[in-house]
Amino acid sequence: MAQQPARQFAHRRSRSALIIGVAMTVLSAALSAAEAPIKVGVIAPLSGVNSRYGAFATKGAQLAAKQINAAGGVLGRPVEVVLGDSQCVPAEGVSAAQRMINFEHIGMIIGDACSSVTMAMQPVVEDAGVLLLNAASSNPQITYKAGVGGYQWTFRNYPTDESRAAIALQYAVQKRGLTRFAVLAVDSDYGRGAIDFTRKYLKTLGATFTSEDYYKETETDFRPVLTKIKYSDAQAIITYGQADTTPIIARQMNESALGGKLPLIGNGEFTSPSTIAAAPKVLNGSVEVTAWLPEWQSAGSLQFVKDYQQAYGGEMPNVHAFFHWQTLHLLAEAMREAHSDEPAKVRDALAIIRYPSAMGEVVFDDHHQAVLPMALVEIENSKPVIKATMAPKIEYAAH
Q1: How much is the CA Rg of the chain, to the nearest whole Å?
Q2: Tell me: the pLDDT tens digits for 230-262?
Q3: For the chain, which domains are there?
Q4: Is the pTM above the cut of 0.90?
Q5: Is 163 helix (H, G, I), strand (E, B) or coil?
Q6: Which DSSP letter does residue 315 get?
Q7: Residue-wise burial string across 262-282, b where 16 or more C-beta atoms lie within 10 A, e elsewhere
Q8: How far apart (Å, rounded) are the C-alpha atoms in residues 253 and 76?
């Protein structure tokens, strides 16, 4: 009889040990989840002809993650940047997004620098319930089709080509007295989209296109089209193109004796020191509308340039580095305001956020497009000079 209480005590002790063991396992799992990094995907062209953009984007995002983590992370957890290579090819971008969603279980993605890739990813993230926060693509259709336009999971923290085109043309006509333009743009959704929206404002401003030409991303000989433009009555060249291609065009314009005669109007990183150095006579007088440049005189922007150069051996950041840096900070703040890293809650926080960025307050309209100022820059004496800043309201009527 004396053995039964002993057996009961042993059974109770065993059961208690089991309960404590289960509780410790659950607690350990909870602590592990709380300490696990918050993974954010960054999809960019890490290889191919546009890899330069991807390199800047990656460095900007990784600098932001380092700064966020040094300040304690988000919700007590570190942020981890997971990279995907789009090669600036829609199918590759979609594959990268699907790998992140299905294998990495990532619920928030920043991408892509190439508009065609971003547009291809939109239905993918929509079906998966994954947040896509764009930091570099400028084709207006991305946000025409977002928010009240349809895609609920797409946001863009970058100006559109429609805004850029309207500002550039208005300045060229009203401030420079230019009305006849030759077109030379990259043959992509970006280049053709920008020219399409420029055309939308031609009649209103009393301007015309004298010719219209597009180049492939790998093209290097522009002499035939420049010769055609030289003997036309064009007063300027409207170009929306690749940063690596602009110096080639500028040098060949110089060879064709077009330096100082036909300014470039539009966007193609005219303002970078390396581009200006390639053909200063051609670039002087050129006008670029840009979302950001290192000369932007705000405390936050100047600090970013300093931090970036310190992190990357003195390299000067470009617009893609800046916006990927800013966008990851913006996303971190949205998670803090949502008190969660759940994509749906972060999406709702983004929709109403008022984020004090280095470029001014970021708010999103009902198409999930950030309302952002753009700098109108003219190159004078081989240096970029900011002439004005504008943040035009986008009219979403069909064009």
Answers
A1: 26
A2: 999 999 999 999 888 999 999 999 999 998 899
A3: 38-159+295-368 (3.40.50.2300), 162-290+376-390 (3.40.50.2300)
A4: no
A5: helix
A6: P
A7: bbbbbbbbbbbeebbebbbeb
A8: 55
